[in-house]
Automatic annotation (TrEMBL):
The chain crosses the membrane at residues 78-99, 173-194, 439-458. Pfam families: ResB. Residues 21-494 form the ResB-like domain. This is Cytochrome c biogenesis protein ResB. Keywords: Cytochrome c-type biogenesis, Membrane, Transmembrane, Transmembrane helix. It comes from Streptomonospora wellingtoniae. Its main location: membrane. It comes from the Bacteria.
Length: 517
């Protein structure tokens, strides 16, 4: 087919299209649009519990969202494809532009135009000073400009060509190079960083090992031996709520008192963990994400022996009231195992329909209700199980408990044992984030801001001064200015330069002609 491109031609066309500024802007826009679901939907990398709650509340749409990786936006294949294409596009676009600007900075200013009267600003005056004196005075006023002196015209007129404001384009190039560095730093961080989520009950501790995490997301190049060997214990946790008004029940503050060690041999230190005050240990940051309740149960078997006695973290079904759901698994109850699904109401009250609800998130009147099962929990099947779900396929339902307050017990049917609600503890959900690229990201972002400021506030300009001797011995001086950006202040600057040059030559009022403003 005549005119058809060869394989090499198509490759060149693809590269030119990919590395154009238009394509880079489109990819940058797509990257921003792709990040919108990550800010609107819960992300597994931030809180697995919130994702599980969303899946429970939206069982129809959640599977489709999961197939599109909308709960893992920033690690999804489609987001990575946009990211990589943007990186390649910026590289092919910015590097040639930076080289071209470097050559332009080393080159001389452009030659003086033949007709200076056509410039946006021009002025003409005469002086008794000679052409060389005029050009010397002009160079003295253009100390911050790059200057080129030449002799032009058939009558031997001499001129000075000056240019300044290269920092504007340098800032533009610096901004894009910093953006490229930012993308590279973020990519490096995804390889060398890790993050993990965990729940820690008040009074318990945490050691930074893979098995201690409820959810662990390592970078491609991260090994479990690379984890910092710190540990901490949650000494105390306090949460305060708004008591009145339209936002009654909204959390006002979370505070956790931690004692930690950066390594097993290091001395113990204290830290007050708050939402905007993470714990920093050896390059890792421990963030406070939220909190919940862990009701405490004591379970006795049919013979009266204690077979279970510990707090169990429950997941809030409603964050406004902290009505929470949880599962208690008792594998050592005897020949048949015991399991319970439970609802925890921190502030029990009667709802409009007479049912039991929670009307406030603080534990004003804590109540639990249980549904008991007996049989095989399926823990020996080899399949992984969630601690928040109970597999009742091989279990028989025992019934439902009455409303239990702290210290009250439920005697199980058929002599299966006794369950006592002994109280509750708070737990906090936290995230550990270790990213060695944090400092490079900060430097790249700061550099981008500096480059942007230079682009916004530096005003590039060109100034020409031509001096030509007349037959009567006087010198005709032409001054012209050209700004590379629309700015009314440049005209005033050019006029100030022309008048100051005239005054330096010790002339009276200038006779100006052809001025354009």
């Amino acid at each position: 087919m005549p005119g058809a491109l060869s394989a090499l031609g198509w490759a060149r066309w693809t590269w030119r299209t990919l590395t154009s500024m238009r394509t880079a802007l489109i990819l940058l826009f797509l990257l921003a649009v792709g990040a919108v679901p990550g800010s609107m939907l819960p992300q597994r990398g931030v809180s697995v519990e919130q994702v599980n709650n969303y899946v429970t509340e939206h069982p129809d749409v959640a599977p489709w969202l999961d197939r599109l990786y909308l709960f893992d936006v920033y690690s999804s294949p489609w987001y990575a494809a946009i990211y990589l294409l943007l990186f390649v596009s910026l590289t092919g676009c910015v590097l040639p532009r930076a080289l071209a600007h470097y050559r332009a900075m080393r080159a001389q200013p452009p030659r003086t135009p033949r007709n200076l009267g056509r410039m946006p600003y021009s002025a003409t005056f005469t002086t008794a000073a000679g052409p060389e004196q005029v050009l010397t005075g002009a160079r003295g006023r253009l100390t911050r400009h790059r200057i080129r002196t030449e002799t032009d015209g058939p009558n031997g007129a001499k001129s000075v060509s000056a240019e300044s404001g290269y920092l504007r384009e340098a800032g533009n190039v610096l901004f894009h190079l910093a953006l490229l560095g930012l993308l590279a730093a973020l990519a490096t961080g995804s390889f060398l960083s890790y993050r993990g989520n965990m729940l820690v009950v008040e009074g318990d501790g945490f050691a930074n090992t893979v098995t201690s995490y409820d959810a662990y997301f390592p970078g491609t190049a991260v090994d479990q031996d690379d984890l910092q060997p710190f540990s901490f214990e949650v000494e105390n946790f306090d949460v305060s709520y708004v008591q009145e008004g339209e936002v009654s029940g909204q959390a006002a503050s979370y505070t956790a008192d931690l004692s930690y060690r950066s390594s097993p041999e290091a001395p113990e230190r204290d830290h007050k963990l708050e939402v905007n005050n993470p714990l920093s240990v050896d390059g890792a940051q421990v963030y406070l994400l939220g909190h919940g309740y862990a009701p405490e149960f004591e379970v006795r078997n049919s013979e009266g022996d204690v077979v279970f006695d510990q707090p169990v973290p429950f997941i809030a079904r409603q964050e406004r009231t902290f009505t929470s759901d949880g599962v208690v698994k008792v594998p050592d109850a005897g020949e048949q195992q015991l399991g319970f699904t439970s609802v925890f109401l921190p502030s029990a009250a009667k709802g409009p329909g007479g049912d039991l609800v929670s009307d406030f998130p603080a534990a004003r009147d804590p109540v639990v209700t249980l549904t008991g099962y007996r049989g095989d929990l399926g823990l020996d099947s080899g399949a992984s199980q969630s601690v928040y779900q109970l597999d009742t396929e091989d279990m028989n339902r025992l019934g439902e408990s009455p409303e239990l307050r702290p210290g009250e017990s439920w005697k199980l049917p058929d002599g299966a044992g006794t369950v006592t609600f002994t109280g509750y503890s708070d737990y906090i959900s936290m995230q550990v984030n270790s990213n060695p690229a944090r400092l490079p990201v900060l430097i790249a972002a700061s550099t981008a801001v500096l480059g942007l400021l230079a682009t916004l506030f530096v005003r590039p300009r060109r100034v020409w001064v031509r001096a030509r001797a007349r037959e009567d011995g006087r010198t005709v001086v032409e001054v012209a200015g050209l700004g590379k950006s629309e700015n009314a202040a440049l005209t005033a600057d050019f006029h100030s330069f022309a008048t100051s040059l005239r005054d330096r030559l010790r002339e009276g009022p200038a006779t100006e002609t052809g001025t354009k403003e």
